[in-house]
Inverse folding.
C-alpha cells in the first residue's frame, strides 16, 4: 500500500510540474508583426540580443527558421552578416537586421503568423561546436491590398489649364460668329 501511494505521488508530481524551456539569451524583435502591401517581396526584421548571464560568454553559432506558408521564405543572411560572434556576460547587441522574410510576388492578402526564428549556440569557448537552442522569436506579416491614391493636382497648373481652355473656346466662338451663313 505505501508503494502505491508513493507511485501515485510521483506521477502526480510529474503531471503538475509544467514543462519549462529556459532561454539562454533574451532575443527581442523590434517589430515582430509587420504589415506590407501586396507585391512587396522582402520584409526586414530587426532585433536586439542580450546575454543575461553574469559568468558565461555565449557564442552565436547558427540560426534556423520555419514559416507557416510556402509563399514565405526566411533569408538568414542578415543574421550571419550582422550578429556578433559572441556576447560576453551582461552584453547586448543591436538593433541590427536579424532576418529578411522573402514573399512571393503573388502572396495573397491576409495574415501569415506562426513563423519562428531560432538562435543557436552556447558557451563552447569559441570552438563554435555548440548548437543549443538559445532563444526563439515568433514573427508575422500581414499582407494588405495596395491603396490607390488620387494624383495630386497643383492649383496653379489647374487654373492655367482652365484659362487656356476658356481662351480656346472663345476663339472658336469668335470664328463661328464671323463665318458666312450658307443658308
Amino acid at each position: 500500500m505505501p508503494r502505491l501511494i508513493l507511485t501515485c505521488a510521483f506521477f502526480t508530481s510529474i503531471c503538475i510540474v509544467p514543462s519549462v524551456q529556459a532561454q539562454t539569451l533574451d532575443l527581442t524583435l523590434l517589430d515582430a508583426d509587420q504589415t506590407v502591401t501586396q507585391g512587396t517581396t522582402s520584409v526586414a526584421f530587426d532585433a536586439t540580443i542580450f546575454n543575461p548571464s553574469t559568468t558565461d560568454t555565449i557564442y552565436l553559432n547558427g540560426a534556423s527558421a520555419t514559416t507557416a506558408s510556402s509563399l514565405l521564405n526566411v533569408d538568414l543572411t542578415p543574421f550571419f552578416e550582422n550578429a556578433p560572434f559572441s556576447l560576453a556576460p551582461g552584453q547586448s547587441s543591436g538593433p541590427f537586421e536579424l532576418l529578411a522574410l522573402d514573399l512571393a510576388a503573388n502572396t495573397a492578402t491576409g495574415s501569415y503568423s506562426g513563423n519562428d526564428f531560432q538562435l543557436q549556440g552556447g558557451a563552447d569557448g569559441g570552438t563554435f561546436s555548440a548548437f543549443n537552442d538559445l532563444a526563439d522569436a515568433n514573427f508575422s506579416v500581414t499582407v494588405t491590398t495596395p491603396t490607390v491614391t488620387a494624383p495630386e493636382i497643383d492649383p496653379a497648373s489647374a487654373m492655367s489649364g482652365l484659362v487656356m481652355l476658356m481662351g480656346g473656346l472663345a476663339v472658336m466662338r469668335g470664328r463661328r460668329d464671323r463665318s458666312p451663313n450658307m443658308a
The first helix runs from residue 2 to 16. The beta strands are 26-29, 33-37, 42-50, 58-66, 72-75, 86-87, 92-103, 110-122, 132-144. Residues 21-144 form a domain with the Immunoglobulin-like fold (CATH 2.60.40.10). Residues 4-22 have pLDDT under 50 and may be disordered.
